[in-house]
Amino acid sequence: MDGKWMFGYGSLMWKIDFPTVRKVIGYVEGYVRTMEWADEVHRGVPKQKSRTAAIFESDNPHDRVYGVVYEISQDYWDRVLKPNVSFRERGGYGVKEVRFVPFDSGATNVPEKIMVTLFLGDKESDYYMPGTTEQLAKHIVKAVGNSGTNLEYLYSTAEALRMIMPPGATDKHMFDLEAAARKLEILMKPKGETHFKHIADDDKYEKRRKMLRLMFKAVDNDIDGDINVKEFSDLTENILGLKPSTVDIKTLCEEIDKNKDGKIHFNEFLEYLLVLMNGNCEKDFKKSFWCQTEGPTKGSEAVGHALLTYELLQDAGIAPVSERGFVNLPTLKKDNAKLLEQMYDGVNTRARDVLDFFFPDNIQDAMDLWFKKSKENDKKIKEQFTDLVEKALAGKLDDWVSTPTECLALAILLNQFPRNIYRKKPEMYSGDEKAQGIAIQALFYGYWKSLTPLQIAFLPCIILCTAENLHYQELGYQIWTNYIKAKLPVNHPLHKVEFIFEQNMGIIKDFGRFPHRNKTLKRASTEAEDAYLKKNAARLPNTSLIYENGKFIVGEEGAEAEDEAWPDLDFTTKIQTLEISA
User: Fold this and answer.
1) Residue 548, SS3?
2) For residue 45, which phi and psi values (nearest 5 degrees)?
């Protein structure tokens, strides 16, 4: 008895979870495949649908959709797959039986005629959402669901096509979309990891040194290892697209020329521009770039901003850098205007501000921010984020829950920043319940498939470990133990804070709440809680967790727990130091 043939043109080319008799490569003719189909079924959530490959009838009878067919036993098809496929492909599809043309030289005993069922997209359906390549790419970069990220779907489908298509064949829509998504992914996603300072600095230095070295070579026209005023002017005008005055150029060259010999040696050039690209210039650049405000137009600041823009585009693969030459910055921006437009449209700049602040470049700064009591950090957070915290608490930012990184930023606004802004006040905990609900929602949506281990340590683990709910505590600890811990590098500092999860869970098991919150929340302590607080008062650290010189140091001086950066992290175990090997 012949089996049933199923045509795979999307994820079924690279991921199947059912038994098959065999697989044959080939195509159907007279159709096109696009990612203009949007739904919440596969890799999306409410308010943020995902893009799925769909097949549409083509005006050109010779258009081909390459894919694979699987032969499935008729019994298994009738019992299992048929109802599942009907459910999976529900809504908005038409059905048509068409002939599949095999070209698989490795297949044997292939039937002369293979008929497959196509689920054809209906362009009148609400699920049909056409757009430019850049618009579709932006949508795909942001979408995540229970099945994983929409990017994984696109990249894996494109790669599967490369593996099966014959020489000379292509799928322009899919490959153009893949290229645009790879660029937008880098441009749109905020950083999700921090590193030891020396590693972060070394990586940044090497990347910038390489770019500056190639720029230096590009304008060193006489190849003498030095550049003069005219050649430096070529850099600012022909590569960076600036229009500095003769006075500006002369002043800059004099600043760079440390030994005052009238020439700019590479080491002078490198040292000056590396310093220029760091510090305040980099901070100002990020603000002006993401807010689309005009940056400086003259002087060293203009050069710094232009170099940082070039670096950003280079990271995204938009600005290829080689000794053969450079495309000037204005041309790059013009040629990629549609892509950059979608980048700006797809980035929530306020959420990005939260994440950029909360995840500094190096781990030392991160640990100080997360675990060390600091009036300076309290002041910064109060000044920069009070308005956002108030909006988050009032539910005015609830739509941030529709994407993973915005959801992470919302959780930080609700669970972390109130502890700095409202220190010693009941409002410290005013966002906890909402944050915990969001953490559970993020788990249901599958956001952990898109976030980094460090980000998942906060959403959901640390959010849950501040809950006065044993089930949440246990869930947070299980995720930490089984998912995050195993993925962290051996020497990552987060390994050293596992006792936080264990200790908080123990306190909730014993009391059902955190006794050290009682005073702040003006709630009466039980006799058992009073005894606990008196017993452990002498061992409460004067800062929850101090990170200095590669060490965690837990102090021995008494302090009221609500004074701390993380008042919930009540250390009942006296620990002197926890060494970290960098």
Assistant:
1) strand
2) -140, 170
Average pLDDT of the chain to the nearest whole number? 86
Residue pLDDT, tens place only, 246-275:
999 999 999 999 999 999 999 999 999 999
| Cβ proximity of 310 and 211 under 8 Å | yes
**CATH number of this structure's domain 197-338:** 1.10.238.10
Determine which helix (DSSP H) or strand (DSSP E) holds 342, and give its type and residue range.
helix 337-346
Residue 220 CA to residue 228 CA, distance in Å, equals 8
With beta carbons less than 8 A apart as the criterion, state whether 473 and 173 touch.
no
Architecture of domain 4-188: Roll (3.10)
**Going by C-beta distance under 8 Å and a sequence separation of 6 or more, which residues neighbour residue 440?**
460
Q: Which of 29, 40, 57, 89 is catalytic?
A: 89
Under DSSP, the state recorded for 316 is: T
525: left (phi over 0), alpha (psi -120 to 50) or beta: beta
Distance CA 233, CA 252 (A): 10
**Locate tokens 């281990």: which residue?**
453
The CATH number of 349-579, from 1.10.287.3610, 1.25.40.10, 1.20.1250.20, 1.20.272.10, is 1.25.40.10
Report how far residue 199's alpha carbon sits from residue 206's, in angstroms, rounded to the nearest whole number. 11
Query: What are the residue ranges spanned by the domains of the chain?
Result: 4-188, 197-338, 349-579
Listed in sequence order, the DSSP H helices in 168-298 are 172-188, 197-219, 229-234, 246-256, 266-277, 280-291
Q: For residue 214, give Cα distances in angstroms to 210, 282, 314, 322, 567.
A: 6, 21, 13, 6, 51
Spatial distance between the Cα atoms of 102 and 110, rounded to a whole number of angstroms: 8
- Active-site residue, 206 included: no
Q: Which two tokens stand for residue 133?
A: 């390549």
Instruction: Tell whether pTM > 0.85.
Output: no
